[in-house]
Amino acid sequence: MNLNKALTKAYESKSFKELVDAPVDAIAGISANDARLLQEAFNVKTIGDLAKLKYVRWAQAIATLAETEE
User: Fold this and answer.
1) Pick from 34, 30, 23, 27: which is nearest to 4 by CA?
2) Could you write out the DSSP letters of every residue in 3-62?
3) I need a labelling partner for 24 at 20 to 30 A (CA). Which of 4, 10, 16, 64 fits?
4) How far is CA 54 from CA 2, 23, 49, in A?
5) Integer CA distances (angstroms), 43 to 8, 11, 22, 39, 40, in order
6) How many domains does the chain have?
7) What is the pLDDT along the chain (70 residues), one digit of tens a residue?
8) What are the C-alpha distances in Å from 70 to residues 33, 45, 65, 66, 67?
């Protein structure tokens, strides 16, 4: 899977196992300041922390269920 557009240049060649422990600003479009704010607000330091954040999971569930709602 090619995630080069989703990651900053320094992280493009990393494995998924390495990426889960990478700082959130390894994701393209998330600045160092954004990362600092995520840490202050939600104690999110890594991509794995962001993925496990309950608010992210809730939003994903709502969006998925909305696709099948009649």
Assistant:
1) 27
2) -GGGB-GGGTT--HHHHHTSBGGGBTT--HHHHHHHHHHH---BHHHHHH-HHHHHHHHH
3) 64
4) 27, 18, 10
5) 22, 22, 14, 4, 6
6) 1
7) 788 899 999 999 999 999 999 999 999 999 999 999 999 999 999 999 999 999 999 999 999 999 999 8
8) 40, 38, 10, 9, 9
